[in-house]
Amino acid sequence: MANATLQNASIAMSRESDYWAGRFTAMASPCEVLIEDATEARARQIVDIAADCAWRIERKFSRYRSDGVVHMINSNAGRAIVLDEESASLIDFASTLTKLSEGRFDITSGVLRTVWTFDGGSVVPTQAEIDAVMTCVGWHQVEWRKPVLQLRPGMQIDLGGIGKEYAVDQAAARVEEIAPGLSCLINFGGDVVVRNPRQDGQPWRVGIEASEHAGTALRVVHLSRGGLATSGDSRRFVFHRGHRYSHIIDARTGWPVRNAPHSITVAADTCTQAGTLTTLAMLQGARCEDLLRASAAKYWIQPA
Amino acid sequence: MSDDNNLGATLAAATCALLGVSAAPVMADEAERWSFDTALLYYGENDDRVQDVSATIGARRAFDDERLLNFTLTADTLTGASASGAIATDAPQTFTSPSGKAVYTAPAGETPLDDTFHDTRFALNAGWTQPLGRLYALSAGLGFSTEYDYTHLGANLSLARDFNKRNTTVSAGLAYSQDDVDPVGGAPVPLSQMLDVGDLSHKRSSDSKDIVDVLFGVTQVLSRNTVLRVNYSYSQSSGYLNDPYKILSVVDGVTGDTILRTPAPGAQGPTGIFLYESRPDTRAKHSLYAEMKHAFGAPVLYGSYRFMTDDWGIDSHTAEVRLRWPLGSTSYVEPVLRYYMQSQADFYHPSLVQGAALPAYASADFRLGEFDAVTVGAKFGHQTPGGNEWSARLEYYQQNGTIAREQLIGNQFAREQYPDLKAVIAQFGYRFGL
Predict the structure, then answer these.
(1) CATH homologous superfamily of domain B4-433?
(2) Does the pLDDT of residue B292 top 90, yes or no?
(3) pTM of model > 0.90
(4) Exposure winner among A90, B74, B82, B142, fewest CB in 10 A?
(5) Which residue of B has its CA nearest to A91?
(6) Do residues B143 and B179 lie in contact, with contact meaning Cβ atoms separated by under 8 Å?
(7) Spans of all domains in chain B
(8) Which residues of A touch B7 (CB under 8 A)?
(9) Is B15 within 8 Å of A277 when comparing Cβ atoms?
């Protein structure tokens, strides 16, 4: 379901205590760019660049856009497609994540959405329904020799799991090109990056929302530089036979992960790394902390 | 997980390949959990009266989901003199000190001040706040303080509930405290006479009082910039409520002069007839308090008013206005103006007439008299780049008392009746986190 008004979304600028803030919507999320120490015109220029980057990536990689790469790939399953440099890099990255997670993370697992609805209810698909969909799931069934990609007929890819954090880091890189050294915080729906520390030595304060107390910060992270991402959404889950299943599906089994924590927040050098680690950790369920410790990144877990 | 040991490195390499550039190392930390508030305060009254220096340390620890622990430790030293309740006469006067072991004197024509007390007090308070479910919050606290002649132990509990999407908060609280009074030289028998040095026959041992407080409050968000808070509270004290060091002069019914007395041969003691004060052994207070905060853009205006009435006949009003005015992005200045007035207690007597029937209760303590007071001051605060805050506060307090004509007798009109009190308050504070 394409959204024709994406291009036209507006940017709202405001002056907060000691920084400029530009807000807009992209990738179905509230986005903001906070800029320290700049004139209004400069700040506006920076926000425009970040928003343009977000909208470009959304147009190109959203599975809803009929003019995007993902749609092109999905409607050509069974045929060999040649990808552009950027798309090929993303596919390479996704492939690495599949290897790193031993198959739990898989961009071909999006089709399982058709049988799982995470609305807090207790309706679960039958094993037969899952098995039927699982025939079209599995990176091992994909032929990928950069830059040529060939899916088996019936397969679909979905880059939603890595798109937002990638967009954040790209937006930061574009901003750095025109305003090197300036401290900006870019936040696309909770995926955050800060390229440069602030001039006044203070960190940016990022509030992680407590799932049950919407609007109040469960914890405040002081981010001077780097990426920050949080995964987990307590409003999307399913109850089945006394177990609570998160909305994150393990691509090996077709079932959602059991006993995952409420949410995991990770701070890493880039937002891509932070977001990836939260996803990989959630996929480990109860053993998420082992993975996070192994990664040597800073993390905070809100237990279920 | 395959090759866990290299997860970080593998991911970093993959990300570098994706983004085309390697990133500088992350710098991130959780917000400080412990917050400390320290303050040093000086209070000084005019004419060598009371001086107080106190140091306070407060520590506050925030936990996940709005649980809060806080401690405060205060140390106070009090020196100087305060009015004993006796009235001025044309001749110098001598009094037995509270310990019963020495005497002190007052010059002719001046309101007698008792300067024999020097005290150091320590106080410790601890409090805990805990959310209960989504809309309730429970707070509980303990307090303890000790000084040479006084020990206080108290506990409090309160419950708050949010309504209207947290725009309204209703709270109810209960506090109980038990105080032990162990005056220097013993608690005097009320309305007994001050005796010579070494004669403790009018003194008894320690005593105690307890206080129960009940509070109901409503906080209401009126608009994006305005918050209103209204409280009603009731306080009931019972037990030993006298000030063991306050006295009244017994005077002649026509001249108003203090009746003279000579100490026993060879002894030192009072040169006049003085009786120890007597207050009722219960006191019930009702208070109504309203406070409004309004933000005009960055500056914030605070206004508050409190009305108090009790069964001792005292009614009081307090009105305060403060304006927090930001200076740049890291500092502020906050001028304050406060006005206070109170009526006198039913049993307030500047002196007692010799030969007249003794009232059940009598006190000449100026703090129970009729007076009004103005405080003017300003506070300045500055936030450091590290997020800590320095502050300095200076206030000037002036109190003027009145004694009704019908309570004064003869020569008392010509003398200082209720001495004006002026005081300076200076405080330095530093707040930091760990």
Answers:
(1) monomeric porin ompg (2.40.160.40)
(2) yes
(3) no
(4) B142
(5) B18
(6) no
(7) 4-433
(8) 100, 291, 294-295
(9) no
